[in-house]
């Protein structure tokens, strides 16, 4: 198959690989036949492996406490820059959680902004055709 030359401790060896099956190789070393078992070393990855510690949850009380914070108003902001295509509400309209407020185009996709809480539209700041930036205030719901 393949011929190799080895120099071990100053001695030259002509090695010919005759047959290789599984992990057994038949070799001819300077005219003498040998059958050797080849052991494979496990190669370690050069990429480090991250090991994170397990998160310890602190349980003080088995009951979940829900706190409702009342605020004066809620600003509806644009999540991405884009163009306003359609406005579904006007000043003074009452909206419920999940109602459509505005449809706008961002990254060549039509997106709909819905109400995050119940309330009344107080201050509508956009109209169809307007260009808006990210985090631009579109309206206020009170």
Structure commentary:
There is one protein chain. With 142 residues, this protein is mainly beta. The chain has 2 domains: 2-37, no CATH class; 74-141, OB fold (Dihydrolipoamide Acetyltransferase, E2P) (Beta Barrel), CATH 2.40.50.100. It is built from no helices and 12 strands. Strands 1-2-3-4 form a 4-stranded antiparallel β-sheet, with no helix packed on it.
In short:
This protein is mainly beta and 142 residues long. It has strands at 2-8, 11-21, 24-29, 32-37, 74-77, 82-87, 94-95, 100-106, 109-114, 119-120, 131-132, 137-141.
Features:
OB fold (Dihydrolipoamide Acetyltransferase, E2P); 4-stranded antiparallel sheet; mainly beta; 0% helix; 142 residues
CATH topology type of the largest domain: OB fold (Dihydrolipoamide Acetyltransferase, E2P)
Give the overall form. rod-shaped
The order of strands across the largest sheet is 1-2-3-4
User: Which stretches of 5+ consecutive residues score pLDDT under 50?
Assistant: none
At the first level of CATH, the class of the largest domain is: Mainly Beta
**Overall number of structural domains:** 2
Radius of gyration: 37 Å
- What sequence of helices (H) and strands (E) makes up the elements? EEEEEEEEEEEE
Percent strand equals over 45%
Terminal CA distance? 85 Å
The number of helices is: 0
User: Could you tell me the mean pLDDT?
Assistant: 83
Largest sheet: 4 strands, antiparallel
């Amino acid at each position: 198959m393949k011929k190799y030359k080895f120099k071990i401790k100053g001695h030259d060896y002509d090695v010919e690989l005759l047959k290789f099956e599984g992990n057994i190789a038949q070799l001819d070393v300077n005219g003498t036949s040998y059958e050797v078992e080849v052991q494979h070393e496990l190669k370690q990855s050069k990429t480090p492996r991250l090991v994170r510690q397990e998160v310890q949850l602190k349980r003080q009380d088995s009951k979940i406490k829900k706190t409702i914070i009342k605020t004066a108003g809620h600003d509806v902001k644009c999540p991405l820059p884009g163009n306003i295509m359609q406005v579904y509400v006007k000043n003074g309209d009452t909206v419920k959680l999940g109602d459509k407020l505005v449809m706008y185009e961002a990254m060549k996709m039509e997106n709909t902004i819905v109400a995050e809480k119940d309330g009344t539209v107080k201050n509508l700041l956009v109209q169809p055709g307007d260009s808006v930036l990210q985090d631009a205030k579109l309206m206020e719901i009170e």
